[in-house]
Request: fold
Amino acid sequence: METSPELIIFMVVSAVAILTAVMMLISDNAVHSALFLVLNFACVAFLYLMLNAAFLAMVQVAVYAGAIMVLFMFVIMLLGAEKELPETKPRFPWLNRVAVGLAALFLITATVGILEANISTTEPEPLAPYVRVVHADPDVSNLDVRLNGERIARDLNLYGNAEFEQLEPGDYTITIEQREGPLEARDLPVSVLRVEEPFAGQDVVEATLSRLEGGNVNPPAELQRLDPVLTLEGNQTITLVLAPLPDGGVGVIPVEENLFSVGNDKAARVQVVHAFPNLGAVDMVDITEPESEPIIIIENLVFGQYTLAETRPRGDYRYGLYPAGDVQAALDAAADEEEVTPNDLGGALFRLREQEFERDTSTLVIVARPPELDNRTPVVFSLPTDHIPTFGGPTSVGQELFTTYMLPFQVIALLLLVAMIGAIVMTRDAVPRPSRASRAAWPHSPAIRWCGHSPSKIKRPATRPPRTRPGQKGGYHASRSNCCTGTLCAVERGALCAGGAGCAHPAQRHSGLYVSRTDA
Amino acid sequence: MLIRRNAILVFMSVELMLNAANLALVAFARQWNAVDGHLMVFFVMTVAAAEVAVGLAIIVAIYRTKRSISIDDLHKFEG
Reply:
């Protein structure tokens, strides 16, 4: 395997990840362990990025390295638990060996599994190809399209399109059925059309122009009519454009589209397919700005041909479609604000309506035949398609989350809610609460008076008083408050210390003030 | 020597293991071109976050009653 920069980065990052994981396990100080774990999480986030999981990398940093580790650090420091506890006699001496054995077993299983599965370590599996059908054959009414018997379009209207279907890669035989009645269907002769040379040269233009003048309805000679077999490969997106054939059959133009994101918010993809058999080669001219020179963006597009996906800045466009080579007509049309006569074959054939190419979409413009045979004005319609969201990006994860995984998502949300409430309830019960009597007496009850001197003059004891244990007398209060001599103190001490957990005198929470009840 | 008695460290080790599983899931999701693996990782992360919140609350609660977070001391719960 050759050394690529990616491989070197991967090795360095994974080495750091393993190192920090080991350091986390063996360091004696829990704070150091937590910091190593943060570093480890950062490495894992980097590895996620290298695996095209941008969204998860983001979540990893925010949730793990941010929230969870802060919580860990907080608890470690709150409990003062950074030092490893002294060695005591382990209760399960065999546990160590069993754990090592299980880890070794897991490693062996994983290694054997990966080696046996014969996974390519450099290239990911290709995406299953997408297929859809566009009906642009006015000779046939509503029809069904099947690939190897599987129906991918049902009752398709003229100039309508079916949704994309995901199929396995392989060879598919295309059959097209015309609806004859509710239960009857008739198979139509189908052939796949393919233009051998995608962008034809000048001689072809002249040939098609002469055909245009002679009203020739035959497809250009370069067009190949093949058996109705479609070969699908991974990562492909194919739109099958159905076009009429002079002999009554249906021609299928397999247009390869590119639905992967442009990766640029300001760009859109445009493709044009020519599906009008008795129309010659056409040019497509950008006449968005009439004053400037018209830009020929597509030249000599003949029947059965389609342009490759072209990235253009998004925005509103005005396109004109003209007989190939007739740039002057385009110029005139651009200068002339009047509506162009549609059937004027010498001039502009058709002026596309103003069209917006939206960001991150692919638009397929189809030049189709109108239903009337003598009408030479092409029907031009377009199919904008949203791009497939980038793998692992927030959009793709979100789409999957809110469609397929909606129910588990809800369950997890409920679980989180229960966990939150559980944590609150648990910590609430753990905090000792003063007894009802002391709460009623504190702090503004007339039965309480301050102990002789003002709060600022009271000095805190220099040393921490010993804690009292449940059932233990004296200690805390006796050593601390010399003015707390009334009977209340005994009552309070008993009430508070019986809880055992905190044994906090209410006065302690109030700047060291001590109280006594005079009338008790 | 690798036996940890500190409950917080045990907790952090569990997080480490969850991350290892997550990394494997993401790698296989890339291999098979399926976002489902990412969703699984997302769920694991959310559950781990909830688990840490509750787990640390339990540790704090235990510390308040027993004054210790050694897992060897936890074999009997006595008020």
Remarks:
- Chain A has eleven helices and 23 strands.
- Chain A touches chain B through 68 residues (CB under 8 Å).
- The longest helix of chain A spans residues 54-79.
